[in-house]
Design a protein that fits this description.
Largest sheet: 6 strands, antiparallel, barrel
Shape: globular
Radius of gyration: 15 Å
Low-confidence stretches: 1-9
Helix content: under 10%
Mean pLDDT: 85
Length: about 100
């Protein structure tokens, strides 16, 4: 049996994340809408919560209605009821949106 040493995983994010609970909508196609909640938000992406039954495509639009923000996004990871997404265009100042 090998001796395995655990090393801390480095967080590769460049921008700080801000906790939030903003309702949003994922638009995977012209006809489909998936309700979600943004749980963490940064200039370059977000962690969203959504029911696991919904499949997300590699690229989609996300709309945050109450602050009138729409961004094209790509799926970075998915684990159960959460997904990490990266925005194709930065938000600017996400701390003001919380």
């Amino acid at each position: 049996m090998q001796n395995v040493t655990a090393f801390p995983v480095r967080d590769a994010r460049i921008d700080p994340r801000y906790p939030t609970s903003m309702p949003a909508t994922v638009l995977p196609s012209f006809h489909d809408r998936i309700p979600c909640v943004i749980r963490d938000l940064s200039n370059g992406g977000a962690r969203i919560g959504l029911p696991p039954r919904y499949a997300l495509p590699g690229r989609f639009w996300i709309v945050v209605w109450h602050v009138e923000i729409t961004r094209r996004a790509r799926l970075v990871w998915r684990c159960g009821a959460f997904a990490g997404i990266a925005f194709e265009r930065p938000l600017g100042r996400p701390s003001r949106l919380r």
